[in-house]
Specification:
mainly alpha; 6 helices
Length: 153
């Protein structure tokens, strides 16, 4: 058997993606956490405004994002940090009205604080998230808040 060609691989990948999307039991879709990381770290990629709108659309009424209980903390911190990063960007137009971004970030901060308080009863899953991701996201939020305090926006 010979090695697959690029054409074979392209066709195979397209078929796999089609099967995943056609499977109603598959829970594959955009991730708030990863979308927020792209917004924060790679704003030059095409679709930045759409990713920011996605974050706003996915915010729940309580201000959080993501799964139930402790599973909401990381996506909430990630989305909040991303929105604060957008607000603190130098130059360029904001893709949405600043008031909408500020309000979503404010609600995200409040939700994250509430999730931390509730973590005594609903613990955050004890994984690498707890020891590495959460502290890094909190550090990013604090850095963005420090930038915004000195910003006239």
């Amino acid at each position: 058997m010979s090695a697959p060609t690029d054409v074979d691989l392209d066709r195979l990948v397209a078929e796999l993606v089609e099967r995943v999307l056609d499977d109603p039991t598959g829970a594959l879709g955009p991730s708030v956490y990863e979308t927020a990381r792209l917004v924060s770290l790679a704003p030059w990629l095409d679709g930045d405004a759409a990713r920011i709108r996605y974050l706003l659309d996915e915010q729940r009424s309580d201000g959080s994002w993501g799964g139930p209980g402790g599973y909401a903390l990381v996506p909430t911190l990630s989305a909040t940090e991303a929105l604060l990063t957008v607000l603190g960007r130098e130059g360029g137009e904001l893709p949405l009205p600043p008031a909408a971004l500020v309000e979503a970030a404010r609600r995200g901060l409040a939700a994250a604080a509430a999730l931390v308080v509730r973590s005594a009863e609903e613990p955050v899953p004890s994984t690498v998230v707890f020891f590495m991701v959460i502290p890094a996201l909190v550090e990013g939020i604090n850095a963005q808040l420090a930038v915004l305090v000195g910003s006239p926006r």
